[in-house]
Amino acid sequence: MSVPENKPRWDNTSWYVGKRVYLWLIKYIIKTINYFVGSDEPGTAACPNAFFHCTNAGHKPKEIPTSWVNDGICDCCDTSDEYNSSSDCVNNCIELGRRAREEAIRKKELLAKGYNLRVELGKQGKQKKEEYKAYLEKLRKEYEETQKVKEEKEEMKKEAEEKEKVALEKYKVEEDDKKHQQEELDVLRHRQEEKVNAENAFNTLDKNEDGILTVDELQQCLKFDQNRDGVVSKDEAMLFLQMKEEMEYEEFISTGWMIMKPIYMMDITSAPETPVVHSSSEEVARKEDHHIQEDNQHEEPVEGDSSENEIYHPPINEDDLDKEEFDDENPHPQVQEDEQKPPEKQEPKYDEETQKIIDAANEAREEFSKAEKEYKRISDEIGNTEQVLEVDFGPNEEFFTLKGQCFEITDREYTYSLCPFDRTSQRPKDDGSETNLGRWGRWVGPEENKYSKMKYEGGVTCWNGPARSVIVNLQCGVQNILTSASEPSRCEYLFEFTTPAMCFTPLSQMDETEHVHTEL
Amino acid sequence: MKMLLLLSVLTTLSLVVGVDRGNFKSCDQSGFCRRNRNMQPGESPYYLLMNNLKVSPTKIESRLANAKTGVLYTLEISALMDGMLRMKINEATPIRQRFEATEALNGEPKETSLKLVSQNSEGMTIEFGKNKAIIHANPFRLDVYSGDQHVISANTRGLMKFEHYRTKEQPKPENQEQEGPANQVEEEKPAAEVEDMDGAWEEHFKSHADSKPFGPSSVGMDFSFVGFKHVYGIPEHADAFSLKQTKGSTDPYRLYNLDVFQFEVNNPMALYGSVPFMVAHSDIKTVGLLWLNAAETWIDIEPATQQGSTQLPQTDTHWFSESGIIDVFFLPGPGPKDVMKQNAILSGTTPLPPYFSIAYHQCRWNYNDQEDVRNVDANFDEHDIPYDVIWLDIEHTDGKKYFTWDNHKFPNPEEMINNVTAKGRKMVTIIDPHIKRDSGYHIHSEATSKGYYVKNKDGHDYDGWCWPGSSGYLDFVNPEVRDWWASKFGLDHYKGSTLQLFTWNDMNEPSVFNGPEVTMHKDAKHYGSWEHRDLHNMYGILMTMSTYKGHLQRSNGHLRSFLLSRAFFVGSQRYGAVWTGDNTADWDHLRITVPMLLSMSISGITFCGADVGGFFMNPDAELLVRWYQAGAFQPFFRAHSHLETKRREPWLFDAETKQLIRAAIQKRYSLLPYWYTLFMENEQNGMPPMRPLWMEFPSDQTTFDMDDEYMIGSSLLVHPVMESKATNVEVYFPGENQVWYDVDNYQKFNGLESSTIPVTMSKIPVFQRGGTIIAKRERMRRSSSLSHDDPYTLIVALDKTGQFANGNLYIDDGHTFQYKQGEYIYQGFSFKKDTLTNHALQGSEKFETKAWLEKVIIIGISTEPKTVQVESHDFGKKNLLFTYKSSTQLLIIRKPAVNIEAEWSIKLLF
């Protein structure tokens, strides 16, 4: 549906003919305009989006919806909107105008200062960008070198390991025998344990100690109340007796226990009354409502973290789950190394010759590992640097210097942190564990003012909700300050940030944006 | 196989979809439900002792006896105003008093004369008003007649049950199963019969025990509606408007006020409110039945059958409650409007709501702080969307301590409220009945020291979990507690409140997170040593009764109250509005709003609504728009959303969605004069503003099963679009010789016909009935109170003959009780003989308005007049500008400019 474009305008010029005449004129003009618009009814569906123009001599003119005219509320400082109402509006345009002009002057000065700072930031930004480019060049050269080294070391490692393999062959048979024996022992021990468990269970359940488990006896044990209706039904009990009324000791030990064990060992006896289940309480949402969570996950899953994981501390108290995810998706090169090492436990004593071969192989492995690490470091560094260079830091790179800085604001409960082009987070004031609110995403301002909004996304996923995300509103200011942080919608945060990088208007253009009626 | 079994048992434990049914009892899990439902129709053991008969001018009294147990009961049958009959059965000599839900009634109903016309050993016939009843002695049975037509029978199927109080017999070692009759010995020693004692003395549900110290106490009876295939009412259920048969297919309809997390649609499970009131309707008759009992109640409905040689259809119902007495009111009709009026006499009506409260409400769990409130308020202005009330949910309090404010988020509540009310708007805060057990909290410490809490079975203060954690529950059964609570709304008590701050009573079923079925234990004890089981369904109404009193008191009875309650019972309408609770943002939940609100409306709960947009989950733009469009045409119009949902204020959507929502809200505002008039009439005569089609067209059988369209008053038919991606809706136009006009394009439709109406996203299918006149206000304001002096537009839809139309308009100051002193305007408009005139309906000179008549639109006029002339006392005769559109037979008359209350006429000259 399209919205009608024709906004009836009153008169843009201002005039002052004494209050009575002035009011009369206004009324006359309204009638005339009404006639033109073809409607008798200002503010009706006949003319939606119609506006009333307050001249506000002495202050800024204003357009208000026609539905605000004569509604008893003074919306125009010149009182012209209440020309036919019983409200006692007072014309305070002169006072308001004076204050507005003072404010405008003050603001103008700040904006001018901000503009100059922005020019300076642009210079710094460009320089920084050049530095990054140079650094990237350097890295690329290093990359080639380290790749070569890595390949050489790998070749050397292979050779040393071949030798080692041959030398160790004879020891291997011996070792395997030992292992086998140990395994058999373990199985025996486990069987013994199971039997004891089964006996214990049998003795506990066999209330009358007659050596036979009966349905009655099982019904006394609430663990078997599978549908949790408070009673163990006959069926529920029989389930554990091979659908028979009773079971003797032998049968129980041999087969009965196998069926019962998972339930018996699980501690499900009727728990004491705890506050559970409630509509809409977070508690319940967590317990009962996983399906909602699934439905709501429109956002992308939490992204794995790569290079910055060392400096970024995943939260520990609130979302342990997420922490696990975090760790899972983060490859640990060390683990791989450990696997490659020969078993250190019970290392048999080798003869001198063999030991030498082994030592040589170990050394070759270490060398290769070092080379590989270096290679990986350089690759990552290249990736990171390329990423930085891909970021849009503004038409003149004026936002570049914000990269690498962090800004904080603390409210009653949390300290919020904004590290531009990197990440956002929240940390409770009392305990220090941090929650990731989202990583740098993109500029999301409207087309004509693209740099007015940033989006950080893919933060820690909420129970029942999307991954946390932050919108940062940027405004021109002489300093970089995070001025506010709030959570208007669950897990959708809003930051306000001022920075000179946003001061796009030079002094020479400012007059056109400010429109103040000074004449009376 | 066994392992498979085991596995399936394990997996069912972890599957949860929608409502967790396991948290709520089925009939099988309730002893008294089983004991009553398992009864087989047959000869009733209850008989009337004719020699005990006592006849007085308004009632007859006698005794009933149970032939099997020998227990004696009192029977009272009395005639009430407007042809109603009341039947009350109680134990003759109970060892413990039985609870009566009299506070639900609008005062003790006035009795009128009753005549015993014949009597013999088999029974008697009585006459009252135009109606009569035949009482059969053995077995006891009552046949009620509306006029000469037999309409309701009680106990014809012999399902009456009245479990007398008894002391528990100590189990005898030899004869353990035998539970004989208790300690009451009657003149005739009864044959010892084994009573059904299943679950009578103790019951368990999940981990909860119900100690049932007084044993079995249920009461039940069957009622047959003779000549009726359709029965309605007994809210609250998320089910079809025309009640379904339950016997043999589902559990009975259950009435037990419960906080149901994510309720499902189309089933008879209990929800937040209970009104045990049923309406039976046929093309020739409408009757009602009120089963006044505040304990847990179930109602079984048998499939309609054809009875006797006349082959009359009949609907058999079976009602039973866990305790209390049998107290039944028969409402003889004969028409639907008569039944509404009769119910209004019994349980009262909704007092005329303040004008703002029928406008649009903006709510969310939660508006976070003052800044948030300011921004939302400002955005409504910025986007030019009218709204009247902004609501604060539980997070506004200091630690869920009601009557307090979170000092950090709301440091200056009064200033915040004043900023909102400066534009004619209001605010609402939530006040729940659970009180945080925090010794520093004044409400708690007072309640504790004065003993104002409900007690547990052991006599200690009942402790339950709710929002604040460990909580006490105020015992509103105690009148002293109610007065004390009312005083807490005084501006001197409730810091930061003003007279423009109103109240939301939530969680008043009561909700107890760790209680059985998320509510209070049935063996908890109330004032007067009643058990919670006796009065559970009344807890909510007793709370709102008290809050309402608080609202009146704080302005010394000058200003009207507004409060919203989730729990409700018979009579809750006397204290304010009710909503359908925590629904979900899906199309099923949008569709179910119509039958749910109709069921509530015809049961007296007329100021009712559903959360627009759905409380749980996130609606997409299409669903939200359709929900606003539907909600704009339902009595209580409030958007609300869960804490964990995305923000959904209209401006957060794309421009088109915002515009569509604005348009829907604006339609509501333009019709506020009509809604207000309907609410005034509702207070007078009980007619619900939202009504089923058959209430206006009783003989049109096509309308009896309708769940998707309804009337607002007698003039507007609404068929909201409630399907996703709809391109048209099938609308049925009721009534012989009726014509209907689409309110958007004035297209004409004939009664008794269906039409396919094409719909776009902006279309709300609403039709004005030919022969009616509606007063609208077409100027939009930021809030309804700012429109007070704005002019009116009259929409005159002519009837089929093109000759006639009429309608009413009620105006007053919108917020005080001065209307009770005659300060109002109530006038009728009528169009006949080519002339539109106005006339006072209930004359009153005491109220003046500046509002004038801006425009008149006459629909269905076949020829263009030559001249249109207005005549009034003030300025004599004057010709008016007008335009005529022959294609739609539409005449638009501009600016009569007469004051709406002055006497005037507008003549069409051809």
Describe the structure.
- The complex is a heterodimer of chains A (520) and B (910).
- In chain A, a hairpin with a 2-residue loop joins strand 11 and strand 12.
- Helices cover 45% and strands 13% of the residues of chain A.
- By secondary structure, chain A is an alpha+beta fold.
- Chain B is α+β, with helices and mostly antiparallel strands and 910 residues long.
- In chain B, 17% of the residues lie in helices and 28% in strands.
- Chain B has 14 helices and 51 strands.
- In chain B, the strands form 9 sheets. In chain B, strands 5, 6, 7, 8, 9, 10, 13, 15, 18, 19 and 20 form an 11-stranded antiparallel sheet that branches. Chain B has an 8-stranded antiparallel sheet with strand order 1-2-3-4-21-17-16-14.
- In chain B, a hairpin with a 2-residue loop joins strand 26 (464-466) and strand 27 (469-473).
- In chain B, helix 7 (479-487) packs across helix 9 (539-554).
- The longest helix of chain B has 16 residues, at 539-554.
- Chain B starts with a helix and ends with a strand.
- The relative contact order of chain B is 0.08.
- At the A-B interface, helix 5, helix 6, helix 7 and strand 11 of A face helix 1 and helix 12 of B.
- Chain A: Residues 193-228 form the EF-hand domain.
- Chain A: Keywords: Calcium, Coiled coil, Disulfide bond, Endoplasmic reticulum, Signal.
- Chain A: This is Glucosidase 2 subunit beta.
